[in-house]
Every structure is written in C-alpha cells, then in structure tokens.
Amino acid sequence: MEATGTDEVEKIKSKFMSAWHNMKYSWVLKTKTYFSRNSPVFLLGKCYHFKTEESGELSTDGSSFDKISTEISGNVEEFRKDFISRIWLTYREEFPQIKGSALTTDCGWGCTLRTGQMLLAQGLMLHFLGRAWVWPEALAMDSCDSESWPSSTVRKLTASLEASLTAERDPRLLARPPARRDWDGTESRNELYHRKIISWFGDSPLAAFGLHQLIEYGKKSGKMAGDWYGPAVVAHILRKAVEEARDPELQGVTVYVAQDCTVYSSDVIDRQCSFVASGKAGTKAVIILVPVRLGGERTNTDYLEFVKGILSLEYCVGIIGGRPKQSYYFAGFQDDSLIYMDPHYCQSFVDVSIKDFPLEMSFKKMDPSCTIGFYCRTVQDFEKASEEITKMLKSSSKEKYPLFTFVKGHSRDYDFASGPLHEENDLFSEDEKKRLKRFSTEEFVLL
After folding, report:
1. Contact, 44 vs 332, CB < 8 A?
2. Which listed residue (47, 82, 106, 111) is catalytic?
3. Which of 52, 116, 218, 375 would give a disulfide with 223, using CB separation of 3.0 to 4.6 Å?
C-alpha cells in the first residue's frame, strides 16, 4: 500500500509540473486531437484513411487530393504506428551545463533547435531505415499510458536512452539490440540504427547533433545559449553539424542549404559527388533545406496546396518554423489543417517523446517563416525530385514568382557567392556569416 501511495504522489507531482511548465512557457495544454474519418490523413508521404481496413486505392471527390498520390498505406492503427515511430524531441532540463553559460535547460528558448533536430532525425531515418520502417515497440510503448508515468519511470526511460551515448563510445555495448525471438537479421540491424540515431541527438556534449554541439556551431553566427534561433539559422547550423560529424556512419550524408530561395543544382551534385573526389566509391545522400517565407506578417493561404504537396512526398523530411515560443515541426496534414509535433509539449523532459497522438492546427495559424526539408539518396533521386517539386511549385503558386526555385549551375555563376567555402579554423566563411546575420533577423526577400 505504501508503494502505491508513493506512486500516486509521483503522478500528481508529474502532472502538476507539466501544467506549470505549460503556463510558464505559454504552451497550450492539449491532450487529444480528433481527426475526421471522412478525409485522408497524410504523414510525411504516407496516406492513411481511418475508415479503411487495409491498403488500397483511395477514391477522390474531385478535390485537391486528385493532384496528390492517393495510395493508402493503412488505417488508424497503421497511422499511430507510423506517427509514434517519428523521433519527437522536446525541451529538457537538468542536462550537463552548456559551455559558456549556466544553463542546464533549454526551456523557453530552444524550440527551433529541437524542431531542427527532428527534421534532421527524419532525414537520417530515411537514410538508414527507409520510409517503410516503423518502430516494432511503437504500440507497446503506447499502451503504457505515458501521461500517467511517475517520475521514477521517466528517469529509468531517460537513462535507457542515454545509455546509447555510452554505447557510442564503447561499440561493444551496441553489439546487439534487446533480445526478441521473432526478430530477423534485418530487424536487428534496424533496431541498432534506430538506437544509434537517437544517441546522436542526446543532450550531452558528446552527441554529434545534441543541443550542446548545435549551440557551439550557432556561436559562429552570433547566437548564444539562451537566444532564440530562427528556422534559417538552424538550417545552416544543421549543415555544419553534419559536416563536422566524425562518426563513420555519417560520412555518406551531407546537407545543402538553399541560398536566397534558390537551389543551385550543380552545388548540390558537387556535394553528393564529394566521395568520388576524395577517391572513395559512390556518392553521398543529401538532405536539402530551403529557408522560405510563406507570406508577410501572416501566412499566405495561396501556399497551402504547395505545403500539402511537399508533405505528401515520401522523401520530405518535414517543415520547421515559427516565432519565439511558437516553433513547430510539421509532418503532415488533413484537409486544410497541418499535423505537427510540438517541442514545447513535454511531460517528462526526456529525449524522445512517445505520445500516442499528434497535434493539429489550421494552415492559417502557421507562421510564415519556415524551412522546408527533403532527402535524396542519389544524384538521380535529386534530379527527379527537382523536376517533381518544380512542377508542383508552378502549378500551386498563384503568385508571379514561385516560393523557391531550382536553377542549373553553381551559385558562383550568378555572382551571389564568392570566396573560399571554408576558412581554416573557421566553420563559416565570411559570405556565410553575412548571410547568417541576415537570416538571424528572419529578413527574407518577399517575391
């Protein structure tokens, strides 16, 4: 009886702290999202319909969905498996002190860094696991009713996840995943990669894409721990983090950030072919990040169809965006509402939230400042994607100019960039510093 009483106290304490953090950081306390059973739901290129019992073709009613792939991936249960399998990172507290500051939490200021981590995590999941992969333990974790976990349970889960960081330093600890009799070799391999991807985002100075490392790269653009980071600045920080990563597994991935709403095809392909230049076989996969504005002070609804089109692509890694304390990771949509993951919503401050429900907002409420991301495994994939997205940009835009463009050649051919790409002992070139300084105020040219 005594143990039961202690658990009840812990549950009440956990819920009280959750409510307090929601009020302190202006969060909206929301516990469920209700979707229509009459419309398809898209999640990072997968289409689900909650009325159907199995995969198949979805009939359209002549709406805008006839422009989007309508192959059904599953019903509500399959959607939940898929959604829970996405890596959801949130505010945390009590992590190792950030160098050069007294901060041991990112509550109230690190939301865009967290959304950037989610964007990159999805790109790495596509690279190592593929879009069809779902976490085998997804629904098992879902049934644990994470909202009622006592803090002691949360601490155990956090310790388990952070053990992956130790395993990264000692490869023997990652020799095999937890024993499961029904796992085959592929599933065991995927579990190893899943654990490793999570370890790269741990809140530790040793984690390649952890908050501590991202802040160190942010200092080169004038950002410090405690500052708010805009979506464009975060895109450049992620690029540097991937470039500087030393894990051999990450040498086959690169990140390209579009300049002034323009993707220069030759620059992207040069990045992908850098393996060949260094004497190694094959090419690199690329995660392309495009900072854009979807309007002026308010989001222009003319861009809705394009945003939906992007999120309907399986190689999309999501969209991040927002103002201070209002940054989100957008991963899907139903009708005119966007499905998103909220880095502010945090019951327990663990690395990976395993909540069983997505959040939803009207497209009109989306902040116009954002960064769009997509993944291409090969040069051929990039060329195909650029053609597909270009058609989408032209057909969906009612404006005179598209939201962003793909052009042939290098950026230097257009005199928009000059000088060496890297300076010795300096992560950002002078040209990049100027661009980052402008991005830090989120000033975009509105076409």
Report:
1. yes
2. 111
3. 218
Cα–Cα distance between 306 and 370 in angstroms, integer?
14
Q: What tokens does 105 get?
A: 């939490």
- Per-residue pLDDT band for 76 (boundaries 50, 70, 90) equals confident
Both tokens of residue 85?
Answer: 């399998």
Averaged pLDDT, 15-40: 62
Judged by DSSP in three states, 314 sits in: coil
User: Which is catalytic among the residues 82, 106, 203, 342?
Assistant: 342
Contacts with 314 (C-beta within 8 Å, 6 or more apart), sequence order: 44, 45, 46, 131
Q: What is the pLDDT of residue 432?
A: 58
Q: How far apart are CA 255 and CA 264, in angstroms?
A: 13
- HEC assignment per residue over 240-266: HHHHHCCCHHHCCEEEEECECCEEEHH
Residue by residue, DSSP assigns 94-157 as SPSPPTTS---B-TTT-HHHHHHHHHHHHHHHHHHT-TT---TTHHHHHTT-GGG--HHHHHHH
> Measured between alpha carbons, how far apart are the two ends of the chain, in Å?
67
Annotation marks residue 344 as catalytic: yes
Concerning whether 111 is annotated as a catalytic residue, the answer is yes
pLDDT confidence bin for 405, thresholds 50/70/90: very high
The two three-digit tokens of residue 223, written as one number: 């950002």
Say what the pLDDT of residue 4 is: 58
For residues 117 and 349, which has the higher predicted lDDT (pLDDT)? 117
Q: Is the pTM of this model over 0.90?
A: no
pLDDT in tens, 182-205: 566 888 899 999 999 999 999 999
CA dihedral 322, 323, 326, 332 (to 10 degrees): 0
